[in-house]
Amino acid sequence: PANTTVAITLFSASSLLSGPHQRFLLRELLRDYNPMERPVANDSQTLTVLFSFTLMQIMDVDEKNQILTTNAWLQMQWYDHYLQWNQSEYPGVKNLRFTPDQVWTPDILLYNRYESLDHTHRYTQGPLQFIQDVF
């Protein structure tokens, strides 16, 4: 119990310090951002998207119908030229969260189904994380 209290207190203090900086940075980054525009400095540049698939759970195996039902995590990573900041100007801000409609997202969908795609979630919220070296 004592360790939990300390961890929560430290997390809360860190959140309080970065909160105003996160809100200001989010407004600044999205002010002139166009989610329909490919996020590169020059339109002739290519944009590398890293795609990974992690199997989390095998939920069901139907041998007769040859159907394998799974729960998986799909992760896409790319460098967005427009969503970068100087960490010294925004103390404590190491990542931000966006909704899929706020930022550019690649038109990539992985599927291998015997039925319609109605139950597939194309995108969910994810963090934008500050990374010093890109690829």
From TrEMBL:
Has UniProt tagged this entry with the keyword NAD?
no
State the membrane topology: Multi-pass membrane protein
Q: Does the keyword Amino-acid biosynthesis apply?
A: no
**What domain of life does the native source organism fall in?**
Eukaryota
One Pfam family assigned to this protein is Neur_chan_LBD
Q: What terms describe the molecular function in GO for this protein?
A: acetylcholine-gated monoatomic cation-selective channel activity; transmembrane signaling receptor activity
Keywords assigned by UniProt?
A: Cell membrane, Ion channel, Ion transport, Ligand-gated ion channel, Membrane, Receptor, Synapse, Transmembrane, Transport
One GO cellular component assignment for this chain's record is: postsynaptic membrane
UniProt cross-references to InterPro entries, sorted A to Z:
Neur_chan_lig-bd (IPR006202), Neur_chan_lig-bd_sf (IPR036734), Neur_channel (IPR006201), Nicotinic_acetylcholine_rcpt (IPR002394)
In this chain the Neurotransmitter-gated ion-channel ligand-binding domain maps to: 25-118
Q: Where in the cell is it found?
A: Synaptic cell membrane
The name of this protein is Neurotransmitter-gated ion-channel ligand-binding domain-containing protein
Give the originating organism.
Echeneis naucrates
